[in-house]
Design goal:
The chain is α/β, with parallel strands linked by helices and 358 residues long. It has helices at residues 41-48, 95-98, 106-111, 153-159, 162-173, 189-201, 213-221, 233-241, 256-265, 288-294, 308-320, 339-348, and strands spanning 3-5, 15-17, 20-22, 29-39, 57-58, 62-70, 82-85, 117-119, 122-126, 136-140, 144-146, 181-185, 205-209, 226-228, 246-251, 266-274, 297-300, 330-335, 353-357. 30% of the residues lie in helices and 26% in strands.
Length: 358
């Protein structure tokens, strides 16, 4: 089968190989034929080394497809079922899961740390235990989440990460209130999903902040009340909030510098929600007086900050009701053979989400 492979961390191009094997099938496993895979900025971060990932590896963690086979003990799906791929499955038994914080389950994440592909005699890892830039893959049973047949593959795949992350940041983590003011810094697929989440929650003003004009235009189409370049954020805050700052600010870039900008744009007593995945050596700094005196809440949000299975169901329900526009997030489609074009589109900011069709 074909798969796109990153041979060494730091390389900026993928090699599409024809003779890759999906490995590890057995009890408790599911073999999936991938039909659509989304390129998320986290894939680029893994390729560059910002996010830790063993190499060589197959990128991609947003995906959906059809079940080809199930191992012993798997009962919730069967061959022919349509599924989305969950890259952070909950084990259901660890302390985090028992507390109702299944998005913090380390056991489920650790189970995906073994190689699940092979090329010749070389083992390959799948990014985040998945690796959706492959025609087939083998994952643990909890990674295969059934979805209704009326949900297109590309929509199901997007719900598997970007939409759940952005909607969840607004609805689960920050719990945006009706009538509030919101700013979202970074308007790729996840950021615009946060914009849509804020709209669903009833925010009165939603300012989208991004240096790329096409992304600002997309944010306006998909729920923002205003869109500005980064240098326009201060003026927007002055006009909309009287200089007090926004009730909620979402940082969806993953940089200490933009987190600091987001903190400064948040009103005293407001909420800064950090959604972007950043590097371990990029440190966000506050002085102890402002931390105490401003009483701003700093809330990180991992994978939407809640039970992902319930979040998937909510996203599907909102999409069916026309409350969120998921088709509008998909700006480009490329075949697997042109996956490097998708990388270029993401790096330039041209794409919100590019779908690699397998």
């Amino acid at each position: 089968m074909r798969a796109a492979v990153q041979h060494k961390t730091g390389q900026d191009r993928l090699e599409v190989l024809d003779d890759v094997e999906a490995t590890g099938f057995g009890p408790g496993k599911v073999r999936i034929r991938v039909r659509a895979a989304g390129l998320c900025h986290s894939d680029l971060s893994a390729m560059s080394g910002v996010l830790p990932q063993h190499a060589p590896f197959v990128p991609g963690h947003e995906g959906a497809g059809d079940v080809l086979a199930v191992g012993d003990g798997v009962t919730h799906v069967q061959p022919g079922d349509r599924v989305l791929i969950c890259w952070l499955p909950a084990c259901g038994t660890c302390p985090a899961c028992r507390r109702g914080q299944s998005q913090l389950c380390l056991k489920g994440l650790a189970e995906g740390a073994a190689p699940n592909f092979r090329h010749g005699t070389t083992d390959l890892y799948g990014f985040a235990g998945t690796g959706t830039f492959a025609e087939e893959l083998v994952v643990g049973a909890r990674c295969a989440v059934p979805v209704p047949d009326d949900v297109p593959y590309e929509i199901a795949a997007l719900i598997g990460c970007g939409v759940t992350t952005g909607l969840g940041a607004a609805l689960n983590t920050a719990q945006v209130t009706a009538g509030s003011s919101v700013a979202v810094i970074g308007c790729g697929g996840v950021g615009i999903s946060a914009v849509q989440g804020a709209r669903v929650a009833g925010a009165a003003q939603i300012v989208a902040v991004d240096p790329v004009e096409s992304r600002r235009d997309a944010a306006l189409r998909l729920g923002a009340t205003e869109a500005v370049a980064p240098e326009g954020l201060r003026d927007a805050a002055a006009r909309i909030t009287g200089g007090e700052g926004f009730d909620y600010v979402f940082e969806v870039v993953g940089k200490a510098a933009t987190a600091r900008t987001a903190y400064d744009a948040t009103r005293r007593g407001g909420t800064l929600c950090v959604v972007g995945a950043g590097a371990m050596d990029d440190h966000f700094s506050l002085n102890m007086f402002e931390l105490f005196f401003d009483e701003k809440k700093i809330l990180p949000s991992l994978y939407g900050g809640g039970d992902v299975l319930r979040s998937y169901e909510r996203a599907i329900a909102l999409w069916r009701a026309g409350r969120v526009d998921l088709e509008g997030l998909i700006t480009h489609r490329v075949p697997l053979a042109r996956v490097n074009d998708a990388l270029d589109q993401m790096r330039s900011g041209e794409a919100l989400r590019t779908w690699v069709m397998l």
